[in-house]
Amino acid sequence: MPNMTPRTRWLALYVLCLGDLMIVLDTTIVNVALPSIRADLGFSQTSLAWVVNAYLLTFGGFLLLGGRLGDLFGHRRLFLSGIAFFTLASLACGLSGSKGLLIAARAVQGLGGAVVSAVAFSLIMVLFTEHSDRAKAMGVFGFVMAGGGSIGVLLGGVLTNSLDWHWIFLVNLPIGILVLALSLRLLPAAHVRQAEGRLDVAGAVLVTVALVLAVYAIVNGNQEGWTSRQTLGLLGASVVLLAAFLRVESRVRSPLMPLGLFRLRNIAVSNVVGILWAAAMFAWFFLSALYLQLVLGYTPLQVGLAFLPANLIMGVFSLGLSAKLVMRFGFRAPLAAGLLLAAAGLAWFVRAPVDGSFLVDVLPSMILLGFGAGMAFNPVLMAAMSDVAPQESGLASGVVNTAFMMGGALGLAVLASLASSRTSDLRAGGDDPLTALTGGYHASFALGAVFAVAAAAIGATYLRTRTAPAHSLEPAVATE
């Protein structure tokens, strides 16, 4: 924006970082409070996954649609709307006294978060047109997002331990109000251009409803029976809706997810890797927090401190170390090494006993997972964007992020269901409650490790580590 001074541009970037930081906080801050929420509102072990999945599903389902809405109605306007929705939904979460209200408010949070995340990237592209400035801005943005995980886990522990779980959501109110006030003053109001085509609402609704039905069927599979009419009916309906989504995307003029993207090898592989890796990583955050509190008896603050080493390591990698590894070794080696380290961290949790100690049974896992996640995230995203021209990098990253969120939701549903089933079997076999609970977590950690190994193998085998110059997509799949 020519009428903005360099100082104003950087201040505007910091506002965008603060807004997106609030979104990132809510993906990690809630994990520490899950046992408290479960005890207060009466969630079962499997239904507790919906506190996380309600957020992930709407976030992933509307991430691409949020970017498209920004094209049509202006990125600044959508950023303000997303922050407002997220802040109001946070208030509803904080005041929730029932399971239904909390899950519904979390779903609205996901919708607001999707809009904010989608248009924040586009606003950075508008604010910084010079390549060097844009690279610096994206580095700052990436560091804040990685650091947000550390802040979220620690802040969640402090708030839950000193106050109660309601405050992990209420803390968003002053942040949201501050971001709204600063955004009105600093963010550029100009609408860069009007996007052509129509809004693909049908695509967003179809894919989101399909995934909600699939997750619901998986989460309730143990209780209702895997061959029951409800489970098979919901899974069948999910398949039909996904098929309808693919048909819509192949015919609509401005598709939400252009299917031609998946003819580009690195994008297709990155999506598969992202789904498997997300399933493993979300299981780590969700299940290890439960293990630490319900089995080892940690307080929420102790859980936050236990996660801190992993999140600090991830933050260090985001400062540029991960990108330097990619420049030195290509995509395959850092990705495979990172995912194998993450698999080793999950496998270490498989042997964690009922009376485990932090130094022997927790810290090694957290360190391995921190290095693994820190090394692997950038190669996945950079590999996807390497196959497209710079002006289409937003679409490529959006597709991968959507796959990551959906993989996390489905993977978490599968692993939470597996943990519950295994725990029930062990209890029926005569094990005491804590031993049975730990055995259920062990089964899920083992499957999460398998997901990570599979992602490493696929990425190392099929990613093109040195790609041809990025090219523009076909007209049917072109974006801004």
List the helices and strands and how they pair.
Layout: H1 6-41, H2 49-73, H3 75-94, H4 99-127, H5 131-162, H6 167-170, H7 172-186, H8 201-219, H9 221-224, H10 229-251, H11 265-295, H12 300-329, H13 332-350, H14 358-385, H15 393-428, H16 433-462
Helix pairs in contact: 1-2, 1-4, 1-5, 1-7, 1-11, 2-3, 2-4, 2-8, 2-15, 3-4, 3-7, 5-12, 8-10, 8-15, 11-13, 11-14, 11-15, 11-16, 12-14, 13-14, 13-16, 14-15, 15-16
Describe this structure in words.
- With 480 residues, the chain is mainly alpha-helical.
- The chain folds into 3 domains: 196 residues, Growth Hormone, Chain: A (Up-down Bundle); 51 residues; 211 residues, Up-down Bundle (Growth Hormone, Chain: A), CATH 1.20.1250.
- The chain contains 16 helices and no strands.
- Helix 2 packs antiparallel against helix 15.
